[in-house]
């Protein structure tokens, strides 16, 4: 959605490597109104198009697609894409309609660009899972590749929204990563205990307000079951009006 940073650049470099000398790399920049709720930060979302163009050139991007909203959502637009399982917990529960907007715009971008592969960041674990499910269920011929989260030296996941943090908020924000690392290293793998551990640690930051902390099956985003092999511990935390997400995986049962 623009306001590109080193995390986005890492996705572009991954795509450039996959494409090789004969392939092309396309980047879309579109602040998608359909994935913002009525009281969310659409109007405040950072927009830095000139700087974004420079970063794309430096990363070896061949095509930059920057449509106007009316090109994506023409007058009378009324067709949306719903994923009805993987999108339900986490951000799907706290941001109703968000993944309807994500799926719709991603499918439109896939139809317009017709890529062989698409690279997404692992920071938004649920988004990758939802898009993979959509591609599978709708027989879309695109390979979905998840790339590792890029972080600041203090552990904070890179995000376009980090620019909205005040100085004190930014100083406290790395508590998210610390809390997740504590949970990954905990002896107990009981989901409720892991969630409590994350909540307690985040609560030590006076400016943090937890939206959710959930521990789910990493493969299905369903509640863990006896057959679950890996957990994902995901959280969303507000600092003021800025909402940050992060996640970490660990083995189940140990």
Task: Summarize, please.
The protein is an alpha/beta fold. It has helices at residues 6-19, 49-58, 69-72, 91-94, 98-113, 125-137, 167-172, 175-185, 191-202; strands spanning 26-28, 63-65, 117-121, 143-147, 208-217, 230-239, 242-251. The chain is 35% helix and 18% strand.
User: How many structural domains can be distinguished in the coordinates?
Assistant: 2
Query: Helix count?
Result: 9
From the 3D coordinates, which CATH architecture of the largest domain would you assign? 3-Layer(aba) Sandwich
For the biggest sheet, the summary is:
3 strands, antiparallel
Beta-strand residue fraction:
15-25%
Order of helices and strands: HEHEHHHEHEHHHEEE
Looking at this structure, what is the CATH superfamily of the largest domain? HUPs
Structural class computed from helices and strand pairing: alpha/beta
Query: What is the average per-residue confidence, as pLDDT, rounded to a whole number?
Result: 96
Count all strands and give the number.
7
Strand order of the largest sheet: 5-6-7
Molecular shape: globular
- The stretches of 5 or more residues where confidence is low (pLDDT under 50) are none
